Amino acid sequence: MKIRQTREQVDASLTWNLNDLFESQETWEKELADILNHLPDVTVFQGQLHTSAKNLLACLEAREAITVRAQLLASYASLRSSEDGTNPQNQANSARVGDVVSKLNAALSFIPSEILALPDGEIERFLQEEPGLEPFSKHLSDLLETKPHRLSAETEATLAALGEVFAAPYTIYQRGKLSDMSFDSVTDAEGVEHPVSFALFESDYEMSSDTTLRRAAYESFSHTLASYQNSFAAVYATEVKKQTVMSRLRGYESVTEMLLHPQQVSLSMYHNILDIIGTELAPHMRRFAKLKAKELGLEKLSFCDLKAPLDPEFSPPITVEEAGRTIKAALQVMGPEYAAIMEKALNERWIDYVDNVGKSTGAFCSTPYSNHSYILITWSGNMRSAFTLAHELGHCGHFVLANENQSYTNARPSMYFIEAPSTINELLLAQHIMEQSDDQRLKRWVILQLMNTYYHNFVTHLLEGQMQRKVYEAAGQDVPLTAKKLSEWKGQVLSDFWGDAVDLDEAASLTWMRQPHYYMGLYPYTYAAGLTASTAMAASIKDEGQPAVDRWLEVLKAGGTKRPLELMKLAGVDMSDPKPIRNAVAYVGSLVDELEKLF
């Protein structure tokens, strides 16, 4: 049986190089010990922000400087924990930096409180008096919008000091998932034994063409999930209760309104994504499920068969190096500046490919300000991994360009926009591969890769979003959240979407346990919002060429200087109109039409 390696055993050349953040644990320790010594650089302005525009500017600049340092410290600890959550030092580092960040946030909480206490019109006067405040103008405007929901300065300071406590549900979830869960090994159709882990199941076995292995892994995976369901439900219920209480304390009408506020997204935009895609995509995906069942020789598709490949013989293994070359070729259309970022990411150890005990599941890109991106992925040697890598490189290109062109305060856009730059790279990769040949089997295979992209964002994450909506609606009515109730709701969401096209077993209802996004606010639905925008943008790049690329690069460099609707309109996509959503859904329908013909 293949044995999962420990972090110490993996090939270092296939890991990220965190020495680019801090040369050693000792260097990190020194910075951690030193950073609080610089708090007086900011707190010296406490009680002085009302005195002049010059003092306000100096305070905001000092806060930005210490916050950038804190982000580097926190990123290092977080990335170490992501590469191996079982390592005691990594666990301790996360706790220590969490404590320091909480102290910093508490000490700095006077800044928004004092700004919001200024007389009406004072900020506008300061902006006219002091040109240096211009880079902070959007931040100040956004802050003023929170005034009706702000608590007293003392209360805000107390809440900031409790930051590590408020983050505990996510920490506990990740620790249980990555450090405590163990799974029974399984046997494939050839009698070969395989270890099972969260990462191996989600990045490999779930997509295996070996039905015996795929279903055995699903049974092992689900068995362990079931044994943790009550603990995970209690942790998630705590997260939801935290958000519910905070929304009431701050005077929001609902948790949803509170969580959408920083995204600068209206309720109608939020519901449009969930309702239009959920309703109009379902018939297309049911057709796809029935096609898959027919081609796999199954009377009915089971939930664990949804990611089973069609025509697996045409999907040869792909190495990290081969995938990198293909992705770089696909993204040449983005121009030399963007291509140079991709080159560095692929060649200078910005990416962690290996699988090891304790490594985080899924994939992500972290880009601390004043440093480069760090991408986590578990490489499975298939084309799905290549598309995932292209996705994360999209985040990388976006964040590096935004960081280079904007101040820290203006670098990060709304969460609503975040997934557009990532998903467009998947679409550009598919376009590139399809343009290499007129072979119908290749075309069919590329469409299947595209269907994986739309499945991930328009189905998996969209249904997470619908589940979240149910949870927060219930929490608003003080309905207790139990494992039984969460599984009932998840089962209903799946049933409403798939109808009779998929056989939904009891274990399917446990998928609420699999996603860390539930601990990140209203994040899941933004994947669908981003892919909607990128679908339109990819079509524009294909039709218009350079003018569309130039618009897109301008948007990426704009960072957080504009609201998400303005950013997308700058790219040429109006997300206040349901039309782009319906166009994206219709495009998926056309892909299913093509597959029905090609099979």
Q: What's the short version?
A:
64% of the residues lie in helices and 3% in strands. The protein has 26 helices and seven strands.
N- and C-termini, Cα separation:
36 Å
As an assembly, this protein is single chain
Low-confidence stretches: none
The spatial strand order of the largest sheet comes to 4-6-5
How much of the sequence lies in strands comes to under 5%
Gyration radius, to the nearest Å? 24 Å
Mean pLDDT, all residues: 95
List how many beta strands DSSP finds. 7
> How does the major sheet shape up?
3 strands, mixed
The geometry reads as globular
Which class of secondary structure composition applies to the elements? mainly alpha
Roughly what percent helix? Answer: 55-70%
Number of H/I helices: 26
Describe this structure in words.
This protein has 599 residues and is mainly alpha-helical. It has 26 helices and seven strands. The protein has a three-stranded mixed β-sheet with strand order 4-6-5, sandwiched between helices. The longest helix is centred in the middle third of the chain and has 39 residues. The two termini are 36 Å apart. The mean pLDDT is 95.
Which helices and strands appear, and what pairs or packs with what?
Elements: H1 25-35, H2 40-43, H3 53-83, H4 88-108, H5 110-116, H6 122-129, H7 137-145, H8 153-161, H9 163-166, H10 168-180, E1 186-187, E2 193-194, H11 198-203, H12 211-249, H13 255-260, H14 267-295, E3 301-302, H15 320-330, H16 336-347, E4 351-352, E5 364-366, E6 374-376, H17 383-405, H18 408-411, H19 415-418, H20 420-435, H21 440-476, H22 483-498, E7 502-503, H23 524-544, H24 546-558, H25 564-571, H26 579-598
Parallel strand pairs: 3-7, 4-6
Antiparallel strand pairs: 1-2, 5-6
